[in-house]
Amino acid sequence: MEFFTIINIGGTIAFAISGTLAGIRKQLDIFGLLVIAFVTSIGGGTIRDMLIGHLPVRWLLDSSVILLITGTFILTILLKNHIEKIDKTLTLFDSLGLGFFTLRGIQEGLAIQLDMSACIILGTITACFGGLIRDILLNEIPYLLRKEVIYATPCIIGGLCYFLMKQIALPNELIDLLTILIIFGIRILAVKKNISLPRGG
Amino acid sequence: MEFFTIINIGGTIAFAISGTLAGIRKQLDIFGLLVIAFVTSIGGGTIRDMLIGHLPVRWLLDSSVILLITGTFILTILLKNHIEKIDKTLTLFDSLGLGFFTLRGIQEGLAIQLDMSACIILGTITACFGGLIRDILLNEIPYLLRKEVIYATPCIIGGLCYFLMKQIALPNELIDLLTILIIFGIRILAVKKNISLPRGG
Amino acid sequence: MEFFTIINIGGTIAFAISGTLAGIRKQLDIFGLLVIAFVTSIGGGTIRDMLIGHLPVRWLLDSSVILLITGTFILTILLKNHIEKIDKTLTLFDSLGLGFFTLRGIQEGLAIQLDMSACIILGTITACFGGLIRDILLNEIPYLLRKEVIYATPCIIGGLCYFLMKQIALPNELIDLLTILIIFGIRILAVKKNISLPRGG
């Protein structure tokens, strides 16, 4: 299996797990949890595709995504006591997913000739808006808005590095890999050090 | 008038009424209620059309829908004391609407060659996401997530039956009719028996 | 600079400021505020473009909008103590923006041959849905639904006047200007007099 396919699957799984766990804390019923798992996992890419007009959105055309999320969901429900213990593994996948999805959004933007700022925004939306919709549905002020540092900040910095590396003409594969690693690294660091940004007020 | 046109109109009316009544409970002003009536009624189909790229969305092209909802809204405001008494009629229309809108979503999916799981998801979105957006706007954890059994569950089961009946090659009209009746029946039963799904936690 | 360009920029700036200030009140961190500033400013136009299929949405193709909002955001953060004092200037720009964005939505609708009611709805969405999404993200019952009179009502009345003036065949530029002024005027009046609509219940 290709490197990117693995990360993609890992990211999808991690987001599906994190959505399910968030729903359990809010005491949703089984189907409510399934909806939350889906939305967290594919919400960001869906918004991106709706913004750029890449329609029908991808997951409607590819039932393997639907199967992957449903399978992850069922396993999460069955194993939830164990999964809550493996918090570190979750953060790991979640951070890899953040990196991959940001890269994916940037590439989708480049494919339709968008400029740098638009591409970075698309990447950040792809990576972060699934969690944003999850929080809206669960009736909370989105975590994204309160703890940006561990969501949007790594994506934005990673996106800037991506275009910087393009400037110095590194090979494409290396740029992709480094972008994911940068986002992954900042995310892990921010979670570990519990870093937070200054408030605006 | 055709059978499906009647159900379609009935569903639209029922959802417009249920949105208006939900807004009244939250003490919205007149235009706030109108917005909620619209969103509840056409929200699901709008999200579906935005996901599959069927744009501009239908109701922008067909002012009869706008007139129908506005008329229903005005009547609901004027007659609201009576409408709250006719709760059963509302559940009836609401359940018929659920059946029709699910069928409609499935058919839209088939028209663009989506596979079974994608079609059932589209059907469920068409039937349930108007109410979902209504609840988000009214700042509640969506009813869909807490009481799936009377929303998404009938749609998903009805959708599965639809494709099962396709397999055994029943005539199309019969399949359509039975799908609506199955969803309608499960919904009515679930509301009557006050059935609920197990929580995930 | 053209008259409409000025109003457009003024409206974008006003909405970016109002989003930032709303976020500060909710104690978001810096990037959370930036997200809110963007969403408030371009949310309405984005929803409109997604509904009519005008994709990719405009601001993805025009980085000057992104720069304008980011610049406004930075200035708002730096000058926030002063800006809160200049509340009247904000209402002024906000109301001009409301007028301009309504007109813009109507024109986009006419460009794809939508009829009157659909055009007015599009105009209202363009002008009001940025604030609606802002409120959803900040986990409040949208202000739009509670205080419609100072949001949707001026847009709807202005839209009706637009089509009335078309009927009596005034010159296009005059119609555009008068529509903005009517919406602006009603808005300012409603804010000043603290007018509110009757509740539905």
From TrEMBL, chains A, B, C:
Glycine transporter domain mapped to chain residues: 6-79, 92-166
Keyword annotations of the record: Cell membrane, Membrane, Transmembrane, Transmembrane helix
Plastid as UniProt keyword: no
Record's bilayer topology term: Multi-pass membrane protein
Localization in the cell: Cell membrane
InterPro entries: Gly_transporter
Residues in the signal sequence: none
Transmembrane residue ranges: 6-23, 30-47, 59-78, 149-168, 174-191
Superkingdom of this protein's organism: Bacteria
Family: Belongs to the UPF0126 family.
Protein name listed in UniProt: Trimeric intracellular cation channel family protein
Organism: Arcicella lustrica
